[in-house]
Amino acid sequence: MATPKIVLFYVFTPLPDPEAIRLWQHTLADSLGLKGRVIISKDGINATIGGDIDDVKQYVRATKSYAPFKKADIKWSNGEGDDFPRLSVKVRPELVTFGTPDEITVTENGVEGGGTHLKPGALHKLLDERGDDVVFFDGRNAMEAQIGKFRNAIVPDTETTRDFIAEIESGKYDDLKDKPVVTYCTGGIRCEVLSVLMKNRGFEEVYQLDGGIVRYGETFGSSGYWDGSLYVFDKRMHVEFGDGVESIGHCASCDANTPLFVNCENAECRKQYLRCEECTANGRQPLCPDCVQSRGLAEAAPELAITSS
Ligand SMILES: [Zn+2]
Ligand SMILES: [Zn+2]
Residue 100 domain-assigned? Predict the structure, then answer.
């Protein structure tokens, strides 16, 4: 592949016939030899697609030729080639699975009633004006924040996006309800929905980072309020916004800084945890910290151990 590129974009817009869009998108991407993941729902499209630069450009041009997708904000990044194992184009009830397909209303102008969009520059202005009152609220799965997040961000206890509703209804974050809260996520899509869900549950002043961490990193590099690496859902696994940026994640075995996730070797667990290149090469700590703990417990006090049987 000459120049591998990856594009990331979403559009919230009413789609009366998602299945027709799915067929068109699949044929288009497949004919150009692209791979990645496209989700379509009655509320729009969410895509991460990779391939050779010329093919990706053609895909973007054709996608934008469909009037409802014309405004798509396309985020480009460099791939490594074969960044995705396959092409998957699917129709789903929600673009992002919060488990609340009926709570958001989408018009030609996007999601109704969401948090105020802040471009990276506007975010810094808000921080200049309101200082420590401003709270960052991570809209991703908690694991992703292990290797990078906004300074002093609140990271909800979420394994999947479905866990957000229980989190924001738990009362844990009620002290934030009268504070300026800035939600952020990888490319911005999760916050389009999350900020509505938060406002509907009494959070009064909610903002969302426009273009997500990706655009923020492009704008401010490593000089702003972002610490560490950005978790990404392709072969790269993580990206940094500047040379010499260190992940804030720590190897489960030797504690060295690392952005590298591996899967737990316990077939019933397979949970991702951080382990540095050297420890992986030397076969150290094949199990995730949770499994290490429960095995340790099993040996020390078998009657207390959590068993998976
Ligand atoms: Zn290590
Ligand atoms: Zn495990």
Answer: no
